[in-house]
Amino acid sequence: MIAFAFHSSARVGIAAAAIALAGCSGAGAADTAADTAATPGQIDTLPLERGYYVRTDDTCATASGATTALLRREGLFWGGSFCRFAGIEQTGPTTFRVQQACGDHHGAPEPTPAEWVITDRTSFSLRDSEGWEHAARLCAQQDMPVHFRDTDIAELIR
Fold first, then answer.
1. 115: which residues sit within 8 A by CB, 6+ positions away?
2. φ and ψ at 154, to 5 degrees?
3. What is the model's pTM?
4. CA end-to-end distance (rounded Å), the chain
5. CA R_g for the chain
């Protein structure tokens, strides 16, 4: 080994310099913890505000049951169907693989994967395992048609 060619005091000096450089560069236990926190993996909830999400090809003021979904902690719900989240894995800074069981209210389907892209806390796009794509953004309840404004969703989106 090359290290054996150095005098023992030189090895100590090199080790001390390496430790000092690590301290100056910010490397160390704090960075290891930060790197671990930034590492993709399982998470409990998607980083989105909960509430009404309207398709990007519609406006908040003209939203309908066909273009609006309610994002709750446990999933995305439309008037007659839903996608319940069975597992969420962050795969990149803005990408997530969501195991979701989607169907109507007449059974419990098996979860299938969907790829979500979330660039901020109020909009997303997704593509499910069958190729269905959806993009939506959060709408303030007071900016929506009356039947959405008059519905109390506070308990549903906690």
1. 91, 95, 96, 97, 98, 126, 127
2. -55, -45
3. 0.72
4. 61
5. 24
Encoded tokens for 112? 């299938």
Q: Domain spans of the chain?
A: 2-39, 42-149
Q: Residue 46: exposed, middle, or buried by beta-carbon count in 10 A (0-12, 13-18, 19+)?
A: buried
Element (H, E) at 23: helix 8-25
Q: What sign results for the dihedral spanned by CA atoms 71, 154, 104, 63?
A: negative
Give tens-digit pLDDT for 48-103.
999 999 999 999 999 999 999 999 999 999 888 899 999 999 999 999 999 999 98
Token pair in block for residue 37: 């926190």
Chain centre distance of CA 141: 22
